[in-house]
Each structure stands twice: as C-alpha cells, then as structure tokens.
Design a protein that fits this description.
mainly alpha; globular; binds protoporphyrin IX containing FE
C-alpha cells in the first residue's frame, strides 16, 4: 500500500470528527437542540467530503502528487458514511423513530426527498467502489461514477432548501462545486495539467 502515513492521517481526521461532535453533545455543549446540530453537522460534513473527493483528481493534475488519488476512494466512502449517519440522526432525533410520520414529512419538507435521492446515488457509488466492481463493470464503471455530479447538484439543492436564510455558506459550496464541474471540461483540465508541466498546451493548440 502506498502512502500509508498520509492515508492513516486522513482516516484519523475524518473518523474523529463525528466522535468529537458526539463528545460535545455528551458535554451539553451543542446548545438546546443537540440532535439538530448533529444532523446538520453530519449533512454539511457529507457535502464537504463529497467536494473533497471530487477535488482529488484536479489536485493530482495540478501538483503531480499521486497521494491525492491514494485517498480519493477513502474520502468517497467517508462521504457515504457521514450521509448514512446524517440519515440515521434524522430518523432518530428529528423524526423520533415515528416512521408512520414519514409520508407527512415528505409532503411538508420535499427537500428530504431530494436528500434521499442523493443518498441512493451515494449508496450506488459506495457499493460499486471496489476493484472487483471496477473490473466487472469495465467501461460502464466510469459512466456509473459520473453520477457523482448529479449527487452534488441534489445535495446543494437539498441544502439550499434548508439554509435559505444563510445563503452565503451555500454560495461558498456551490462556487466550489461549479469550479469542479468546470474542471471536467477537457480543455480546462488540459490547461490545468499544462500549468504543472510548465507548457501551455492550450496556447500551442490555439496557435
Ligand atoms: C435520506 C437522506 C437524507 C435525509 C432524510 C436528510 C435530511 C435532512 C434534514 C431533515 C435536514 C435539516 C435538519 C434541520 O436543520 O432541521 C438536512 C440538512 C442538510 N443535509 Fe440532509 N438529508 C439526507 C441526505 C443528505 C445528503 C446525501 C447530503 C449531502 C451529501 C445532505 C446534506 C445536508 C446539508 C448540507 C444540510 C444542511 C446542514 C446545515 O444546516 O448546515 N443530506 N438534511
């Protein structure tokens, strides 16, 4: 395994965050509604991890360091784990385990359905993230994992619905997502690679 220290450091950072939030809740340091704070923090954490996962390839292109790619899958799986904890927190703290209220909840707060769709997408990606799935799916694997961009859009829409009054924070994440989507355009990603190699391939092509 390459970059064992780097991988372990990323693991420790990301795994300790929910434990830290739980510790704060235990210490009554999360305010009058700790359940809601936990659900919100885990949701925001899942979005941050999703954007971090998508940043690994552009960072590798820009810096040439393969360590970014060594933690990409781990970050993606952590994103799924945070989203799963976010969903569990919602069912336990906000819904109080009353599953019969779920239909009424979906009618009153349709953003839950949007988040649910995003979660289904994340589940598909997590289930097909192994090398075995990669081999089995062959060329279709890339197509399936292209779903990640749809998931980002669903997650942002879901968040916007919740934090309408705090649009600044949302705009920050949306800006990063827009930049990452832009980097998917072949000419932009080629320009990024040329920044590293010191040759402006785009310029040469334009001539
Ligand atoms: C079945 C799946 C999901 C359910 C039921 C769900 C439910 C919720 C609920 C109820 C809230 C608002 C909590 C409140 O403040 O009252 C929320 C907020 C949020 N969720 Fe989800 N969600 C789901 C999936 C996701 C996914 C997949 C992501 C991201 C990848 C996500 C990211 C967020 C974010 C960023 C917020 C706003 C947090 C904040 O206020 O800072 N959610 N979600």
């Amino acid at each position: 395994m390459r970059y064992p220290l780097w991988r372990s450091a990323v693991f420790a950072c990301v795994a300790s965050q929910p434990l830290y939030w739980l510790y704060l809740a235990w210490q009554f340091a999360l305010g009058p509604d700790p359940g809601k704070v936990l659900v919100d923090s885990l949701g925001e954490g899942a979005l941050v991890l999703l954007l971090l996962t998508l940043s690994m390839t552009p960072l590798q292109r820009l810096t040439g360091w393969a360590g970014w790619l060594a933690v990409r899958r781990q970050l993606g799986l952590w994103c799924f784990t945070y989203a799963l904890l976010h969903l569990t927190g919602y069912l336990y703290f906000l819904l109080g385990g009353e599953f019969s209220r779920l239909g009424e909840e979906l009618r009153e707060r349709p953003y839950i359905l949007v988040g649910g769709l995003g979660f289904v997408g994340l589940t598909v990606l997590a289930m097909t993230s192994s090398r075995w799935s990669m081999r089995r799916l062959g060329r279709r694997w890339k197509k399936v994992h292209g779903l990640v961009y749809l998931i980002v859009i669903l997650a942002l829409l879901h968040m916007l619905w919740v934090v309408r009054a705090d649009a600044g924070r949302w705009a920050f994440y949306a800006g990063i997502a827009a930049a990452l989507l832009l980097l998917r355009i072949p000419v932009v990603s080629a320009a990024l690679a040329s920044v590293r190699s010191g040759r402006n391939k785009v310029g040469i092509k334009l001539k």
